Amino acid sequence: MSYLNFDKNLLINLEQSLPKEILRTNKSGAYHCTTIVGCNTRKQHGLLVIPIPEMDDKAHILLSSLDETVIQHGAPFNLGLHEYEGDVFSPNGHKYIREFSCETVPSMLYRVGGVILKKEKVFISHQNRILIRYTLIDAHSETKLRFTPFLAFRNANDLCVENGAINKETRPVDNGIATCLYHGYPELYMQLNVEPEWVSNGNWYKNIVYTKDRDRGIPYKEDLWVPGYFEVPIKKGESIIFSASTALENPDDFEKTYEHELTTRTSRTSFYNSLKNSAMQFYLKKKEGLYLMAGYPWYNVRARDELMGMPGCTIAIDHKEDFEEMASTFIEALMKYLTTGEKDNTIQEIDLPDIPLWLIWALQQFRRRYGSRECRDKYGEVIASIVDLIRNDKVKNLHPHDNGLLYSEGKKSPVTWLSASIEGKPVIPRTGYIVEFNALWYNALCFLLSLIEEDGQQTELKEDLSALAEKVKESFKKVFLNEYGYLYDYVDGSYTDLEVRPNMVIAIGLEYSPLDRRERKKVLDLATRELLTPKGLRSLSPKSYAYRPIYVGNPYERELTVHQGPARPWLFGFYADAYLRIFGATGTPFIERMLIGYEEEMTEGCIGSLSELYDANPPYTGRGAVSTAKNVGEILRTIKNVKEMNKLQTP
Fold first, then answer.
1. Using 50, 70 and 90 to split pLDDT, how confident is the model at 458?
2. 294 vs 382: CA distance, rounded Å
3. Which one, out of 55, 455, 553, 610, has a CA that is 20 to 30 A from the CA of 202?
4. What pLDDT, in 10s, does the model give residues 375-386?
5. What is the rounded CA–CA span in Å between residue 211 and residue 134?
6. What does DSSP say about strands 221-234 and 197-209: parallel, antiparallel, or unpaired?
7. Alpha-carbon distance values, 403 to 63, 415, 472, 480, 516 (Å)
8. Closest residue by Cα to residue 324 from 338, 310, 336
9. Which residues pair with 119 in a beta bridge?
10. pLDDT digits over 163-204, tens only?
11. 356 cis-preceded (ω within 30 degrees of 0)
12. Residue 162 and residue 450: Cα distance in Å, rounded?
């Protein structure tokens, strides 16, 4: 049985099956995302969703869904499922599903009377193309399959309504049709590996409902265009492959292409393999280089998210070359911005002040796996350059003060990962001396100093760095460490933010922390008592008057809530680092027990992946983006660290 397997009893219960989603990507920005029963519940759901650089390089849904119908003795049995206004589901095809599994590719088994039909989906790597294979396992009489495409041709964050601007024309191609609903979009080619009958029967299907959007208090209904349907006979033991693509394909190659793609997949037979498979879904290959998407289904490449997720999504799964290519692409973009002010077209938010510090942290993880010499040879110069730019006040909104600490202005717009804003104003105006910025700064200085020392260089730079690091360490303790044993979140002049937040855990989880072991232990104890959950660290202590643990409501309510309680799995990576640095190998059993909380999520939310955030109170429901790179990456990095520490203790 597959590690990710769901039976009939769960699948026919929509309260249980609709919250479970599946994501597949082509590693070039396109994706397929829906629920495990095939009913779209978000406006971003779709069978073929692609970026269109010629328009805006944002995700656009071409093919929303494909209804399959089994026909025997002239009687149709529709396997599709849509929700319409009034909590009406039609045509209730989920009642025929007997099993869903996702070991290698998403696979569904249907039973309609004496008909047993298997459906499998493969998203082709680096192509805007999905293949769906239907295999008739059993049938006692002549059987036909009907395929009915629901078309959107819209931005993934918009909705479609019936309109007169639509182009209803289709044209025949090899074993299928091509169509394009609106000017500016590419043609959609829908083909089969056998010659079908195409029946042109255009209609609008109106008021399709997306429940996830309705729950968010945003527009949630749309109309989809159905241009007609394909019909094709199928015999017992035969497989028919449906292809949806932005390019005309050769039907004779469908089976070969499908089988080749299977050989490139990581079988999701365990917790680790599921996360490894998920990590690779975030890869974005473009002609400019290799990137890491922040998450699906609505994020693109974001600088901080990429750097946080990159070590886990590459190094932790032994993809060294991918790390090097991503790092090279990012370094080129960042250094160009730092020296010329020109922002990258792909990497968003590269101008935020802490990005250079997070880059050094990511490169430090490379050193941890592959040694100082290789790290110094590959990245030593860029690390030294970044430190020099910061020291000389050449990084925008990251100002070194005489006490060695870095100061950033965050009152007007958010500058940290707590980026919620309402009407352009930060919900949490973190400004001045920000705790993780300065912890990362101390870590960067010590990291560079260690590379110089290990190289045997006795230079004036070494002495300067050593003196500066010591000054930063002393100032850090004086500014952030308080009599209660935890760290202030940010300090601006006479204002000291007293809230207990997880950013202090970043400060104790770094390889070089400005705190000694006793001080780190006090911070860790408080974080354990007030912030730790089975799904990561809370973004705010429950003891705070501002605590809002459940991420629900309209956009305004969610923006108020997002950083005032909900937990983040990526923060557990720093918690685990801190715990293992304090307790050593004796701490691994506790970290392994905590990891069980993340394994439970493999069959919840987006199966095989981790959601963007989780409610801070039980039952810790997943919310936000269904699959997030930094969460997946940091849990993978933690798994790797635990395995290595256990290995070191094995006689």
1. low
2. 24
3. 55
4. 999 999 999 999
5. 29
6. antiparallel
7. 58, 22, 7, 13, 20
8. 310
9. 108, 134
10. 999 999 999 999 999 999 999 999 999 999 999 999 999 999
11. no
12. 64
What is the b/e burial string over 314-349, where b = at least 16 CB atoms within 10 angstroms of the residue's CB? bbbbebeebbbbbbebbbebbbebbeeeeebebbbb
Coil vs helix vs strand at 240: strand
Q: How many other C-beta atoms can be found within 10 angstroms of the C-beta atom of residue 146?
A: 20
CB within 8 Å of 638: residues ≥ 6 apart: 572, 573, 576, 577, 591, 595
Copy the structure tokens of residue 86: 């009034």
CB 384 within 8 Å of CB 363: no
The alpha helices in 296-319, defined as continuous H runs, are 303-314
Using a 10 angstrom Cβ sphere, with 0-12 exposed, 13-18 middle and 19 or more buried, the burial of residue 483 is: exposed
Amino acid at the residue 497: D
Distance set, CA 140 to CA 99, 116, 497, 634 (Å) = 21, 10, 72, 51
DSSP annotation of 110 reads: E
Task: Name the residue among 622, 616, 617 with its Cα closest to residue 20.
Answer: 622
CA distance 255 to 438: 55
